[in-house]
Amino acid sequence: MTLSQSYIGRFAPSPSGPLHFGSLLAALGSYLQAKAQNGQWLVRIEDLDPPREMPGASADILRTLEAYGLHWDGEIIYQSQRHGAYQAQIETWLKEGIAYACQCSRKQIKEVGGYYPGTCRDRHLPQGDTAIRLHQQHVITSFEDQRYGTMTIPEKLAQEDFIIRRRDGLYAYNLAVVLDDIAQGVTEVVRGADLIEPTGRQISLYRLLGVPEVKYLHLPLAVTQEGYKLSKQNQAPAIDRQQPIPALRAAMGYLGLPVHEAPETTSPETLLAWGVERWHSDVLPNRLEITYPE
Ligand code: GLU
Q1: Atom of ligand 1 nearest to the CA of 46
Q2: Whose CA is nearest to atom 6 of ligand 1?
Q3: Measured from the CB, is residue 57 less than 6 Å from ligand 1?
Q4: What is the mean pLDDT of residues 62-76?
Q5: Tell me, what's the pLDDT at 1?
Q6: Cβ contact 190:25 at 8 Å
Q7: 0.70 cut: is pTM over it?
Q8: I need a surface site. Which of 98, 121, 140, 225 has the fewest CB within 10 A?
Q9: Within 10 Å of residue 287's Cβ, how many Cβ atoms?
Q10: How far apart are CA 60 and CA 66, in angstroms?
Q11: pLDDT tens-digit readout, 20-57
């Protein structure tokens, strides 16, 4: 196998709080998928949005991954260290006339139906108190998921000239994630089903950059009994760093592994090695939403 054909996957948490069960599913699913193919599993900290971050969360997440036996390969990348690369790409697109400054407020966009209609595209506004948008030329309304097949994206959303740098100067998630996945040589993105819609925009960035796109595998999303995504905002409890085995077993079960056959062990590494051996994305449940706790 040549290097360029080998598998590189990643887990890319935002440090808005400690790992909870929902983020453990994304960590575990991406880990199993990478290791079952003898691949590398990278960790990237997506600290793009300081106001939404919790001090100490990055270090906390990394300590928890280690306690769970989820040992990453290579160096950790922090998006806060990558602003130069994001800005350089934006400058290139501005020069090429593909990106432009936009001063429309959310309220104005809401008033015209909720989707941005390209109002500022030909206005040649100076940059300042403005967002930067990308003139959408590669409208992606569907893509193939490795487990769930054809995923469709609402056309109006797919057509939008989306934001690559926010008005407050922060870089947009879609831009950062694609530039970083390319820079890190990622071959497959494995993440929660809440990120299906942005995938269309991300594929359009690969097209624009002329880079072959990665493969995508989405994982069922853990939702509360009321149907909300488990997140820090709805008080998803942090997983217990001292007790990795119960949470790991539960997460493996949610991802479709026959955990009742797993060895009784106190070692997360042993449990994970069993998981890697049994793993194939076909074991994932049919539904893209699972209730937690069941
Ligand atoms: N940082 C994103 C999150 O925590 C995940 C990004 C991705 O996997 O592409 O939701």
Answers
A1: 1
A2: 12
A3: no
A4: 98
A5: 39
A6: no
A7: yes
A8: 225
A9: 11
A10: 10
A11: 999 999 999 999 999 999 999 999 999 999 999 999 99
